[in-house]
Amino acid sequence: MKYKINELFETIQGEGSFTGQPSIFIRLQGCPVGCSWCDTKHTWEIELDDKVTPQAMLTKTQETSKWASFSADDMFALVKEKDFRAKHIVITGGEPCMVDLTPLCQLFEQQGYSTQIETSGTFEINTTEKCWVTVSPKINMRGGYEILASAMSRANEIKHPIATEQHVDDLKSLLAQYNVKETAIYLQPISQKKRATDLAIETCIANNWRLSVQVHKYIGIE
Ligand code: SF4
Q: Which residue, judged by its Cα, is nearest atom 2 of ligand 1?
């Protein structure tokens, strides 16, 4: 099986429960969900004309919609070749759950890595049992996709982007709809805006939820 990869790089995870963890990010191309504030819009479309060689994808100097085809084995070989030291794999997008992530996670887990996926919760999640699943539910977005009950029940953490009271209300309705009680809930202010951050802090304290502030953006790393 081949995956369409937009980026593969080593950095520090800046969000959610794994904040601060050295991680290898694998960014898949393709997402139809259509969030207006999406900060990876270049990953939305999968154009055959944008297919490039693995080397060309790896040496991109700016965010583009160019992608390259990799098998799980190709990715593992690349991680070894680049001598990446992180032992945590983060599979993101785009929307990574448009494809089966099981072979990819399985291979890295067999080699002693931990795995994590970040998904909008709008596609069935196909991954290993051990994989840490971060659902960042994208409610009422332009693409018209519903949040799946199966995604909400599989989530190890729920990380909700917020900027307004409406976003908080949307999350509360979703949690009530799926009777979510035990899962860790993070609020993540959209675009580091002060108003969004103040609202997130206030709402986290009121509900005993956690704050996720996209540390990588504050310290200026990828
Ligand atoms: S689900 Fe993620 S990648 Fe897709 S549009 Fe929303 S924020 Fe962007």
A: 94
